[in-house]
Write a structure and sequence with these properties.
Blueprint (H helix, E strand, L loop, with lengths): L1 H31 L7 H12 L10 E8 L5 E4 L12 H8 L10 E4 L6 E13 L2 E11 L1 H56 L14 H41 L1 H20 L4 H12 L10 H4 L7 H7 L2 H9 L6 H9 L20 H16 L10 H10 L8 H13 L1 H5 L12
Antiparallel strand pairs: 1-2, 1-5, 3-4, 4-5
Amino acid sequence: MWRSEVVLEGAFLDQTKREALVFLLGIEHEIGKLDEPLNRKALQQVIDQTIQRDQLDLLNFSIYALYIFNADGQILAHSKPGKYPLKQIDGTKAAVFQQGEISLGEEVEYARDPVTGIEIPKADIIIPLHHNGKVIAAVEVEINLEATIKRIQQFDDRYERELVTVFAICFIILLLFLWWEIHRLLIHPIQSLGAVTEKIAAGELSSREEQLGRDELGDLGRSVNRMADSIEQLFTEQEEAYLQMLQSLAKALEAKDAYTATHSGRVSKFSVQLGRRLGLDKDELKLLKQGALMHDLGKIGIAEQILNKPAPLDDAEYEEMQRHPTLTANIMRPLKRFKEFAEIAAWHHERWDGNGYPDGLKGEQIPLLARIVAIADTWDAMTGDRVYRKGMTPEKALSIIESEFDSGQWDPELVRVFVAMMRGDLEARHEVEEDMFGESPA
């Protein structure tokens, strides 16, 4: 920026000096018309007329002094009348007379104004005056460069602002480009790896890093994928073993309480039917089926005399029976990838109005699958035979449920879909269709 300013300032000064040269050549032309070129009176008249011209306002400089002198250094005419000492004819002035050269002044000089005391920047421009092929005198103009310096400063200020603006824009573009490159090559892959590891930590063991480059981050991504494969295999083996244990536990419960086993099978099938009506996908239906099958598994911890009591339970026994959802949820909790199992087990006795147990969840705080199983569980409890009573007919059960649509026990929308399903499908009432997973109804 500094170097370019120096070059531009030099160009401005050179332009001003050349403009002054043209100005002096005009004076030379006027003097050339004189009959007596060295007549002091005639020369002074040319100087005075030149100083008084209106065209001077159009110049990019002002005249500090304008005068004519001869080879002896005598001032023949001057823009500022007065007595002046002989000028020393040497250096550039000598070259003007001896070689007829034009002097444009090499450096900016400063002269103190006798009136204001302010230093004024100026430059001296000298041209020779010829007569009959000889140099007979010289015209020198001392130009006031204040206007030129002001123009240079104005241009410099604008130039600096524009240059700084351009540099700033380029710098911002460079920063944005660098940020984009760093984000593409480093930050985004790291974020992607972080997201994958967070999903794995949350139990989504099938998550894998897809952006595998040939650099260190790509190697790290492949390591994360191998780790995820190992973890998924380990968890799968553990879950399979745990599910087998649950199946053994279910058989033990069946031996202890045959009703609970058959009840769970029916609840599972009715739950899947309602899930289909609600548009659940295959994976959700599978979770719903298995969760419903195991929703009462905690009854293994309830005393057998309570489970098989041939009469309604008293308050203490009923309170003990209410522990089974929590017991079931505790049994299911190790199956972290199938948290829906624990949710169904824990909350299938919660009510839409918040008056259920064990946690008093309300409305949509209760997971969808638990709300579905709650309806199927109630339906089978009403229509199934118990040791101490015979189940009611489907028609009577439907009438009771319809009268309690908005009682707060069930999700109002789900229970209406369930009743419509049961009323509109006789086969669904009397013969449960083959299970969607290829198992025949129990």
